[in-house]
Design a protein that fits this description.
The protein has a single domain, classed as Up-down Bundle (Methane Monooxygenase Hydroxylase, Chain G, domain 1). The protein is elongated and about 65 Å long. Helix 1 packs antiparallel against helix 2, helix 1 runs antiparallel to helix 5 and helix 6 packs antiparallel against helix 7. It has 8 helices and no strands. Helices cover 84% and strands 0% of the residues. With 235 residues, it is mostly helical.
Length: 235
């Protein structure tokens, strides 16, 4: 993006970019903390994640206000307009990631004081690490204006869908083996689904960031349904 004649215009655009970076950092931290709290039955850490959601909401409101004010005052066109509208959309997805992390944190107490079985904890942790890499990478690629990396990142979401299906099947196995596991495993199932949905929001961010940079929409190249949704719709 080239510099503008009015220096304050560039400063306003940079402020919006900085809010996106801040929200990206916070969404990643919340997701990591929520997953850690879930696996370690750490209720105080879960409460911190829940509190952080208010910070995320405040940042999104600030971003929306800055973007709307900039549009009204500067009447941006072409790439500048794409950047501002794209930032609003990306901010909305980052805020939703914060909501999903909060949802995971709110289930920590309900899962119980006992940590998940080692194999299951490893599977959920593997999925969480994949999601965290995606959250961090999408903001990094946006800041670096790396459009090609965003294409690869969007396609990598399929791996998260596959991992979610694996966790889903493991949870069903634990529930069938011992009915006493049903309550805790149901909560864990919702947590795994929240992680999978975070991956979907990262995909949305990648698509919007790509559009901001290129002016082109990414084509739909793969189905968005995971195997568990396909199975459910076939019943």
């Amino acid at each position: 993006m080239g510099e503008h004649t009015v220096t304050s215009f560039d400063e306003e655009l940079e402020h919006i970019d900085r809010l996106i970076r801040d929200m990206g950092d916070l969404s990643g931290a919340m997701t990591q903390a929520a997953t850690g709290a879930l696996l370690d039955s750490d209720v105080p850490l879960a409460q911190r994640v829940i509190s952080d959601d208010a910070v995320m909401d405040a940042k999104q409101r600030e971003l929306d206000e800055c973007a709307i004010t900039l549009i009204a005052k500067r009447q941006p066109m072409a790439q500048d307009l794409r950047s501002v509208v794209g930032a609003i959309r990306m901010g909305s997805d980052l805020e939703r990631i914060g909501d999903l992390a909060k949802n995971i944190a709110k289930r920590v107490g309900a899962v119980g004081q006992s940590a998940p079985p080692r194999d299951l904890a490893h599977s959920i942790n593997t999925m969480a690490e994949m999601v965290l890499r995606q959250v961090k990478a999408v903001v990094d690629h946006y800041v670096a204006r790396n459009a090609e990396a965003l294409v690869r990142l969007r396609d990598d979401d399929e791996q998260i869908d596959v991992e979610y299906t694996s966790v889903f099947r493991e949870l069903l196995t634990y529930m069938m083996e011992d009915p006493r596991n049903i309550t805790a495993c149901t909560h864990l199932l919702f947590c795994a689904k929240n992680l999978e949905r975070i991956g979907d929001h990262v995909t949305n961010i990648a698509e919007n960031a790509y559009y901001v940079m290129t002016g082109d929409q990414l084509p739909v190249q793969r189905p968005r349904l995971d195997e568990t949704q396909i199975s459910a719709s076939a019943d």
